[in-house]
Design goal:
Structural class: mainly alpha
Shape: globular
Distance between the termini: 62 Å
Radius of gyration: 20 Å
Number of strands: 2
Mean pLDDT: 83
Number of domains: 1
Order of helices and strands: HHHHHHEHEHH
Low-confidence stretches: 1-6
C-alpha cells in the first residue's frame, strides 16, 4: 500500500526553515494584541491561540522534527481549551494557560538559539532570529508574571489592583531592557527574584549573541574565498 503524502498544511510548514521574518511578525502581532485588546478573561483566548501558532512556526523555522511539532500543537491546543474554560468558569485556573504558553515559548526560544548557533555566516535570517529571541524573552516573562498573578492570592505587582496583560508586558520589557521601574514594581519576593532573573538572563543573552555574531561576521573577500593580503 502506498504511503500517504503529507497534507498541504504540513508541506507548507516544512518550507518555513530559517524564515525568522515570519516569526518576528507573529511576535509583534502578539505584542500589539496584548497591548490593544481590552481587559477580560476572554482576551487570553485569542492571545493563547496566536502564541500557539507562533511556537509552531518557530519550531518549523528552526528545523524541529514533525513529531515534536505535533507535541507542541497538542500543548498549544490544550492551552487554548483551558483558557476558554477558565474564561467561562472564572477563578484562579486562568493562570494555567499563561504558564503553558511560557513553557512553549521557552521551547521555541531554545530551538531558535540552537538553529542560529549552526549558521556559518551572518545572514538576514540570523539577525531576524536573534531579534525574535529577544522579543520572545520579554513575552515569556509576561506570561509567567500574568499566570502567577492569577494563581496566587497576594498581589504580584505594586501598587495592587486589577492589572491587565498589557501591564505585565510593560513590566516585563521594562525589566528585560533594564530601563528602570516607574509606576509598577514587584510586590513579592518571588516577583523580585523572577525580575532579577529576567534582567540577568536578558543581558547575558545579548552579550552571548553579539559575541556569536561578531565571530561569524567575515569580510566579503574572505566569504568568497579570497582573503585580503
Amino acid at each position: 500500500m502506498a504511503r500517504r503524502r503529507p497534507g498541504a498544511l504540513v508541506a507548507a510548514i516544512d518550507t518555513l526553515t530559517d524564515r525568522y521574518g515570519l516569526v518576528l511578525v507573529l511576535l509583534v502581532v502578539t505584542y500589539v494584541l496584548a497591548s490593544a485588546l481590552p481587559s477580560g478573561d476572554w482576551t487570553t483566548v485569542p492571545l493563547t491561540a496566536i502564541q500557539g501558532v507562533t511556537v509552531v512556526v518557530t519550531l518549523a523555522a528552526s528545523g524541529t522534527p514533525p513529531r515534536r511539532r505535533r507535541i507542541a500543537i497538542a500543548a498549544a491546543t490544550l492551552a487554548v481549551i483551558l483558557s476558554a474554560g477558565a474564561a467561562l468558569a472564572g477563578g484562579r485556573a486562568g493562570g494555567i494557560p499563561g504558564l503553558i504558553a511560557a513553557v512553549l515559548l521557552c521551547w521555541a526560544l531554545v530551538a531558535i538559539v540552537r538553529r542560529v548557533a549552526l549558521h556559518r555566516q551572518v545572514t538576514i535570517q540570523t539577525l531576524l532570529g536573534a531579534m525574535s529571541c529577544y522579543v520572545m524573552f520579554g513575552l515569556i516573562y509576561t506570561f509567567i508574571y500574568s499566570g502567577l498573578a492569577r494563581l496566587q492570592t497576594a498581589p504580584f505587582l505594586s501598587p495592587a489592583g486589577s492589572h491587565t496583560l498589557s501591564d505585565y508586558m510593560f513590566f516585563s520589557f521594562t525589566t528585560l531592557t533594564t530601563t528602570g521601574y516607574g509606576d509598577l514594581v514587584p510586590a513579592t519576593g518571588l516577583g523580585r527574584a523572577l525580575a532579577m532573573l529576567e534582567a540577568l538572563s536578558g543581558q547575558l543573552f545579548l552579550v552571548t549573541v553579539v559575541a556569536r555574531l561578531v565571530a561569524l561576521w567575515m569580510p566579503r573577500s574572505q566569504q568568497r574565498g579570497n582573503p585580503e593580503p
